[in-house]
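>> Question from a student workshop board

For tomorrow's exercise we were told to take the sequence and the ligand below, predict the bound structure, and bring the output to class. My setup keeps failing. Could a helper post the expected result so I can at least see what it should look like? The ligand is zinc ion.
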Amino acid sequence: NLTFERYHKVDDIYKYIDHLSQEYPDIVEIETIGKSHENVPLRVIRIKLDQNSTDTKAIWIDGGIHAREWIAVSSVLYLINELVYNRDSLELHMKNIEFHIIPILNPDGYKHSHEKERLWRKNRSKPSANSCVGADLNRNWDYHWGETGASKYSCAEIYRGVKASSERETQAVVKYIMKNPNKFKGFLTFHSYGQYILYPWGYAKRVPSDHTEVHRVGQVMATAIKKATSNEYTVGNSATLLYPAAGASDDWAKGVAKIKYSYTVELKDTGKYGFILPPTEILSTGKEAYAAVSALANEISSEK
Ligand code: 0X9
Ligand code: ZN
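>> Workshop helper replied:
Here is what the output should look like for this input. Compare the format with yours to find the bug.
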Protein backbone atom coordinates (compact mmCIF):
# COMPACT_ATOMS: atom_id res chain seq x y z
CA ASN A 1 0.00 0.00 0.00
CA LEU A 2 0.93 3.61 -0.50
CA THR A 3 1.36 6.33 2.09
CA PHE A 4 0.19 9.87 1.41
CA GLU A 5 2.73 11.27 3.82
CA ARG A 6 5.43 11.61 1.22
CA TYR A 7 6.07 11.81 -2.51
CA HIS A 8 6.98 8.58 -4.26
CA LYS A 9 9.52 7.55 -6.83
CA VAL A 10 8.57 6.01 -10.17
CA ASP A 11 9.46 2.43 -9.17
CA ASP A 12 7.28 2.58 -6.06
CA ILE A 13 4.39 4.01 -8.05
CA TYR A 14 4.61 1.18 -10.57
CA LYS A 15 4.86 -1.42 -7.84
CA TYR A 16 1.73 0.01 -6.29
CA ILE A 17 -0.35 -0.07 -9.46
CA ASP A 18 0.93 -3.55 -10.31
CA HIS A 19 -0.20 -4.66 -6.90
CA LEU A 20 -3.66 -3.18 -7.48
CA SER A 21 -4.10 -5.00 -10.76
CA GLN A 22 -3.03 -8.28 -9.17
CA GLU A 23 -5.27 -7.89 -6.12
CA TYR A 24 -8.30 -6.50 -7.93
CA PRO A 25 -8.22 -7.91 -11.47
CA ASP A 26 -11.99 -7.57 -11.75
CA ILE A 27 -11.92 -3.77 -11.55
CA VAL A 28 -8.35 -2.72 -12.33
CA GLU A 29 -6.60 -3.26 -15.63
CA ILE A 30 -3.17 -2.03 -16.67
CA GLU A 31 -2.02 -1.35 -20.18
CA THR A 32 1.43 -0.26 -21.26
CA ILE A 33 0.75 2.30 -23.96
CA GLY A 34 4.30 3.12 -24.92
CA LYS A 35 7.69 3.95 -23.52
CA SER A 36 9.34 7.15 -22.42
CA HIS A 37 12.49 8.46 -24.07
CA GLU A 38 14.52 6.56 -21.48
CA ASN A 39 12.47 3.41 -22.09
CA VAL A 40 10.35 3.51 -18.96
CA PRO A 41 6.94 1.97 -19.69
CA LEU A 42 4.04 4.41 -19.80
CA ARG A 43 1.14 2.79 -18.08
CA VAL A 44 -2.54 3.49 -18.11
CA ILE A 45 -4.61 2.09 -15.29
CA ARG A 46 -8.23 1.47 -16.19
CA ILE A 47 -10.76 1.33 -13.42
CA LYS A 48 -14.40 0.51 -13.87
CA LEU A 49 -16.14 -0.33 -10.64
CA ASP A 50 -19.49 -1.53 -11.94
CA GLN A 51 -18.65 -4.15 -14.52
CA ASN A 52 -22.32 -4.77 -15.24
CA SER A 53 -23.15 -1.27 -16.30
CA THR A 54 -23.49 -0.96 -20.05
CA ASP A 55 -22.60 2.72 -19.88
CA THR A 56 -19.34 3.20 -21.76
CA LYS A 57 -18.60 6.80 -20.87
CA ALA A 58 -14.95 7.30 -20.07
CA ILE A 59 -12.83 10.01 -18.48
CA TRP A 60 -9.13 10.46 -19.18
CA ILE A 61 -6.93 11.59 -16.29
CA ASP A 62 -3.21 12.25 -16.30
CA GLY A 63 -0.65 13.59 -13.87
CA GLY A 64 3.04 14.31 -13.97
CA ILE A 65 3.40 15.66 -17.51
CA HIS A 66 5.59 18.34 -15.92
CA ALA A 67 8.44 16.84 -13.95
CA ARG A 68 8.52 19.18 -10.96
CA GLU A 69 4.78 19.13 -10.31
CA TRP A 70 4.93 16.24 -7.87
CA ILE A 71 1.59 17.08 -6.29
CA ALA A 72 -0.14 16.23 -9.59
CA VAL A 73 1.25 12.70 -9.40
CA SER A 74 0.39 12.17 -5.74
CA SER A 75 -3.13 13.54 -6.26
CA VAL A 76 -3.82 11.17 -9.13
CA LEU A 77 -2.53 8.32 -6.97
CA TYR A 78 -4.88 9.42 -4.22
CA LEU A 79 -7.76 9.29 -6.68
CA ILE A 80 -6.78 5.76 -7.77
CA ASN A 81 -6.52 4.71 -4.15
CA GLU A 82 -9.99 6.06 -3.36
CA LEU A 83 -11.55 4.36 -6.37
CA VAL A 84 -10.13 0.99 -5.37
CA TYR A 85 -10.20 0.97 -1.57
CA ASN A 86 -13.26 3.10 -0.97
CA ARG A 87 -15.29 1.63 -3.83
CA ASP A 88 -18.18 0.39 -1.75
CA SER A 89 -19.01 3.80 -0.36
CA LEU A 90 -18.61 5.82 -3.55
CA GLU A 91 -21.52 7.50 -5.24
CA LEU A 92 -23.19 5.68 -8.11
CA HIS A 93 -21.83 7.99 -10.82
CA MET A 94 -18.29 7.00 -9.86
CA LYS A 95 -19.12 3.36 -10.46
CA ASN A 96 -20.48 3.72 -13.97
CA ILE A 97 -17.70 5.77 -15.48
CA GLU A 98 -14.66 4.07 -16.93
CA PHE A 99 -11.53 5.89 -15.71
CA HIS A 100 -8.40 5.78 -17.82
CA ILE A 101 -5.64 7.10 -15.62
CA ILE A 102 -1.97 7.69 -16.15
CA PRO A 103 -0.42 8.79 -12.87
CA ILE A 104 2.94 9.69 -14.33
CA LEU A 105 3.16 10.75 -17.95
CA ASN A 106 6.74 12.03 -17.77
CA PRO A 107 8.61 9.45 -15.69
CA ASP A 108 12.07 10.46 -16.97
CA GLY A 109 11.59 14.09 -16.01
CA TYR A 110 10.03 13.15 -12.68
CA LYS A 111 13.00 10.96 -11.85
CA HIS A 112 15.39 13.75 -12.83
CA SER A 113 13.48 16.18 -10.61
CA HIS A 114 13.79 13.75 -7.70
CA GLU A 115 17.45 12.94 -8.19
CA LYS A 116 19.16 15.89 -9.86
CA GLU A 117 17.26 19.13 -10.41
CA ARG A 118 14.16 19.66 -8.31
CA LEU A 119 12.74 22.30 -10.65
CA TRP A 120 13.12 20.34 -13.89
CA ARG A 121 9.99 20.70 -16.06
CA LYS A 122 10.49 18.97 -19.42
CA ASN A 123 11.07 15.39 -20.47
CA ARG A 124 14.63 14.09 -21.07
CA SER A 125 14.87 13.68 -24.82
CA LYS A 126 17.70 15.17 -26.87
CA PRO A 127 16.85 15.90 -30.50
CA SER A 128 20.46 16.24 -31.69
CA ALA A 129 24.05 16.31 -30.45
CA ASN A 130 24.28 20.08 -30.02
CA SER A 131 20.83 20.72 -28.61
CA CYS A 132 19.68 21.01 -25.00
CA VAL A 133 17.86 18.21 -23.20
CA GLY A 134 14.10 18.13 -22.90
CA ALA A 135 10.93 19.13 -24.70
CA ASP A 136 8.03 20.68 -22.84
CA LEU A 137 5.46 17.90 -23.19
CA ASN A 138 2.74 20.49 -22.75
CA ARG A 139 3.81 22.33 -25.91
CA ASN A 140 4.19 19.26 -28.11
CA TRP A 141 0.58 18.44 -29.07
CA ASP A 142 -0.69 18.60 -32.60
CA TYR A 143 -3.21 21.40 -32.37
CA HIS A 144 -2.02 24.91 -33.19
CA TRP A 145 1.42 23.49 -32.43
CA GLY A 146 4.26 26.01 -32.24
CA GLU A 147 2.10 29.13 -32.01
CA THR A 148 2.11 31.65 -29.15
CA GLY A 149 3.79 30.75 -25.85
CA ALA A 150 5.90 27.89 -27.17
CA SER A 151 9.57 28.10 -28.07
CA LYS A 152 11.50 26.73 -31.01
CA TYR A 153 14.72 26.79 -28.97
CA SER A 154 15.62 23.47 -27.41
CA CYS A 155 17.15 25.14 -24.34
CA ALA A 156 13.92 26.94 -23.47
CA GLU A 157 11.69 25.69 -20.66
CA ILE A 158 8.76 25.81 -23.07
CA TYR A 159 10.51 24.09 -25.98
CA ARG A 160 7.84 22.71 -28.31
CA GLY A 161 9.89 19.76 -29.66
CA VAL A 162 11.19 19.28 -33.20
CA LYS A 163 7.71 18.80 -34.59
CA ALA A 164 4.16 18.28 -33.39
CA SER A 165 3.90 15.02 -31.46
CA SER A 166 7.64 14.44 -31.73
CA GLU A 167 7.87 13.02 -28.20
CA ARG A 168 7.16 9.42 -27.33
CA GLU A 169 5.11 10.39 -24.28
CA THR A 170 2.80 12.53 -26.44
CA GLN A 171 2.61 9.87 -29.14
CA ALA A 172 1.58 7.17 -26.69
CA VAL A 173 -1.41 9.15 -25.40
CA VAL A 174 -2.49 10.28 -28.87
CA LYS A 175 -2.43 6.72 -30.15
CA TYR A 176 -4.31 5.41 -27.13
CA ILE A 177 -7.08 8.00 -27.13
CA MET A 178 -7.50 8.05 -30.90
CA LYS A 179 -8.27 4.33 -30.95
CA ASN A 180 -11.61 5.22 -29.47
CA PRO A 181 -11.97 8.98 -29.04
CA ASN A 182 -15.77 8.99 -28.88
CA LYS A 183 -15.96 7.16 -25.61
CA PHE A 184 -14.02 9.87 -23.78
CA LYS A 185 -16.40 12.48 -22.43
CA GLY A 186 -13.93 14.15 -20.10
CA PHE A 187 -10.21 14.91 -20.12
CA LEU A 188 -8.45 16.13 -16.99
CA THR A 189 -4.78 16.89 -16.85
CA PHE A 190 -3.37 17.66 -13.42
CA HIS A 191 -0.65 20.27 -12.95
CA SER A 192 0.53 22.70 -10.31
CA TYR A 193 0.35 25.38 -9.15
CA GLY A 194 -2.13 28.27 -8.83
CA GLN A 195 -5.48 26.69 -7.93
CA TYR A 196 -7.10 27.09 -11.32
CA ILE A 197 -9.52 25.08 -13.40
CA LEU A 198 -8.63 26.05 -16.94
CA TYR A 199 -10.45 25.30 -20.15
CA PRO A 200 -9.62 25.84 -23.85
CA TRP A 201 -8.53 27.48 -25.80
CA GLY A 202 -5.04 27.90 -24.51
CA TYR A 203 -3.40 28.76 -27.83
CA ALA A 204 -5.10 32.17 -27.98
CA LYS A 205 -7.63 34.24 -26.07
CA ARG A 206 -10.55 32.55 -27.70
CA VAL A 207 -13.26 30.31 -26.34
CA PRO A 208 -14.95 27.32 -27.98
CA SER A 209 -18.59 27.60 -29.04
CA ASP A 210 -19.73 25.43 -26.13
CA HIS A 211 -17.84 27.47 -23.53
CA THR A 212 -20.95 28.31 -21.51
CA GLU A 213 -21.42 24.63 -20.57
CA VAL A 214 -17.71 24.03 -20.23
CA HIS A 215 -17.44 26.99 -17.86
CA ARG A 216 -20.45 25.84 -15.85
CA VAL A 217 -19.03 22.35 -15.34
CA GLY A 218 -15.68 23.90 -14.36
CA GLN A 219 -17.55 25.92 -11.77
CA VAL A 220 -19.26 22.76 -10.50
CA MET A 221 -15.79 21.24 -9.97
CA ALA A 222 -14.56 24.34 -8.13
CA THR A 223 -17.62 24.28 -5.88
CA ALA A 224 -17.00 20.61 -5.09
CA ILE A 225 -13.40 21.41 -4.14
CA LYS A 226 -14.52 24.27 -1.94
CA LYS A 227 -16.92 21.93 -0.19
CA ALA A 228 -14.16 19.34 0.32
CA THR A 229 -11.37 21.51 1.76
CA SER A 230 -12.69 25.10 1.69
CA ASN A 231 -9.97 26.05 -0.80
CA GLU A 232 -10.80 28.39 -3.66
CA TYR A 233 -10.07 27.44 -7.28
CA THR A 234 -10.58 29.98 -10.04
CA VAL A 235 -12.35 28.82 -13.20
CA GLY A 236 -11.71 30.33 -16.60
CA ASN A 237 -10.29 30.28 -20.08
CA SER A 238 -6.63 29.37 -19.85
CA ALA A 239 -5.19 31.92 -22.28
CA THR A 240 -7.10 34.71 -20.57
CA LEU A 241 -6.60 33.66 -16.96
CA LEU A 242 -2.97 32.51 -17.30
CA TYR A 243 -1.27 33.20 -20.63
CA PRO A 244 -1.58 31.95 -24.18
CA ALA A 245 0.37 28.70 -24.61
CA ALA A 246 -0.11 26.63 -27.75
CA GLY A 247 0.41 22.90 -28.16
CA ALA A 248 -0.91 21.86 -24.73
CA SER A 249 -2.77 18.61 -24.20
CA ASP A 250 -6.11 20.13 -23.17
CA ASP A 251 -6.42 21.97 -26.50
CA TRP A 252 -5.54 18.79 -28.38
CA ALA A 253 -8.14 16.81 -26.42
CA LYS A 254 -10.83 19.27 -27.34
CA GLY A 255 -9.68 20.32 -30.81
CA VAL A 256 -8.60 16.95 -32.21
CA ALA A 257 -10.10 14.19 -30.06
CA LYS A 258 -13.28 16.30 -29.70
CA ILE A 259 -13.63 15.66 -25.99
CA LYS A 260 -16.11 18.26 -24.84
CA TYR A 261 -15.08 18.60 -21.20
CA SER A 262 -11.35 19.14 -21.33
CA TYR A 263 -9.58 20.89 -18.43
CA THR A 264 -6.18 21.60 -16.98
CA VAL A 265 -6.37 21.61 -13.22
CA GLU A 266 -3.63 23.59 -11.52
CA LEU A 267 -3.53 22.22 -8.00
CA LYS A 268 -2.17 23.83 -4.83
CA ASP A 269 -0.91 26.25 -3.85
CA THR A 270 -1.24 29.89 -4.86
CA GLY A 271 2.46 30.65 -4.55
CA LYS A 272 3.64 30.30 -0.98
CA TYR A 273 5.51 27.08 -1.72
CA GLY A 274 4.75 26.82 -5.42
CA PHE A 275 6.16 23.66 -6.98
CA ILE A 276 7.88 22.65 -3.74
CA LEU A 277 4.68 21.92 -1.92
CA PRO A 278 5.37 20.23 1.44
CA PRO A 279 4.25 16.60 1.83
CA THR A 280 1.80 17.63 4.55
CA GLU A 281 -0.35 18.98 1.68
CA ILE A 282 -0.53 15.66 -0.20
CA LEU A 283 -3.64 14.30 1.45
CA SER A 284 -5.76 17.45 1.30
CA THR A 285 -4.74 18.17 -2.30
CA GLY A 286 -5.61 14.58 -3.21
CA LYS A 287 -9.05 15.23 -1.76
CA GLU A 288 -9.40 18.28 -3.97
CA ALA A 289 -8.48 16.28 -7.06
CA TYR A 290 -10.94 13.60 -6.05
CA ALA A 291 -13.70 16.18 -5.52
CA ALA A 292 -13.07 17.64 -8.99
CA VAL A 293 -13.12 14.23 -10.66
CA SER A 294 -16.27 13.18 -8.85
CA ALA A 295 -18.06 16.40 -9.82
CA LEU A 296 -17.06 15.96 -13.45
CA ALA A 297 -18.11 12.30 -13.45
CA ASN A 298 -21.47 13.29 -12.04
CA GLU A 299 -22.04 15.89 -14.75
CA ILE A 300 -20.94 13.55 -17.49
CA SER A 301 -23.03 10.62 -16.38
CA SER A 302 -26.16 12.74 -16.18
CA GLU A 303 -25.68 14.25 -19.65
CA LYS A 304 -28.02 12.81 -22.35
O1 0X9 B 1 1.95 26.31 -19.05
C1 0X9 B 1 1.44 25.18 -18.89
O2 0X9 B 1 1.73 24.21 -19.55
C2 0X9 B 1 0.39 25.03 -17.78
N1 0X9 B 1 0.81 25.69 -16.58
S1 0X9 B 1 2.08 25.07 -15.72
O3 0X9 B 1 2.46 26.06 -14.70
N2 0X9 B 1 1.62 23.77 -14.95
O4 0X9 B 1 3.16 24.76 -16.62
C3 0X9 B 1 -0.93 25.63 -18.26
C4 0X9 B 1 -1.51 25.02 -19.50
C5 0X9 B 1 -2.86 25.58 -19.82
N3 0X9 B 1 -3.42 25.11 -21.05
C6 0X9 B 1 -3.12 25.65 -22.27
N4 0X9 B 1 -2.36 26.68 -22.39
N5 0X9 B 1 -3.69 25.09 -23.31
ZN1 ZN C 1 2.39 21.97 -15.48
